[in-house]
Amino acid sequence: MKARALVRLYPRAWRERYGEEFAELVASQKLGPRMWLDIVFGALDARLAPQPQVAAPAKGAAGGRIMQALRSGCAAPAASRAEQIRLALWIAAVIVGIALFYVWLKRTVGDNVWIEALGNSVVSFGAIAYMQLLLRQYRLRTRVAFTAVMLVAVYLIGLFAAWT
Amino acid sequence: MAKKRQDGGLDDLGRFSEPALLILISLAAGPKHGYAITADIESLSGAKLGPGTLYGALSRLEARGLVEPLPPQKRRRPYRISAAGARVLRARLDGLALLARAGQRRLVHP
Question: Could you report the predicted ipTM of this complex, rounded to two decimals?
Fold first, then answer.
């Protein structure tokens, strides 16, 4: 693969700033597996943790918006250490809370598919809790609607698993 | 407890911290473009920086004002170390020199 094609792995704003010189450097070196990996990881890094001088995503580009949303939840520069710890505690609290509620229901009400479905869905509810951070830049109405749909979908899948 | 380094510039670069230090050392000898930086670092330390690592570190150094891009020459853009970059490099090298001396003393008098 030519150096120019490898540069396309990087986001557009990055390419506009560093593309020429990067391609020149890649073209001047022998491309072994280690070099390939280095370039791929470099492209991932440029997409997930863009530096201010190349941070502007292309307007209206779906990829740009998705990466921006992911960054708001995942990337270290966007989420501080305190936020990451709060998020981890929040997910742990959701999972443990629902698991305890499931155990309590099972002991007080007894076995039935509705309760079993709740038990099947505990970990997925933790993932939905994580989505709250990914979606935090959106309006409350959008977040509530998305979360409600996800909760129902996950519970229905848990119910299906309990029935079969 | 170990005293935290306070040279304000490289500690928060994570896996790019060491490549950034090597780049600053290379640029301390004068402006260079990407290929010259990699070749210089390889001759200095034996470490060969891949293009992804080099530009990951360079973009971070540029964002922090520790290196400055110069006008491109053909398709290569040289970089030079800034005054802030020289301060950060000096502080980091002083810290490393202290650490090296302490290590050598302990080897002689364990």
Answer: 0.82
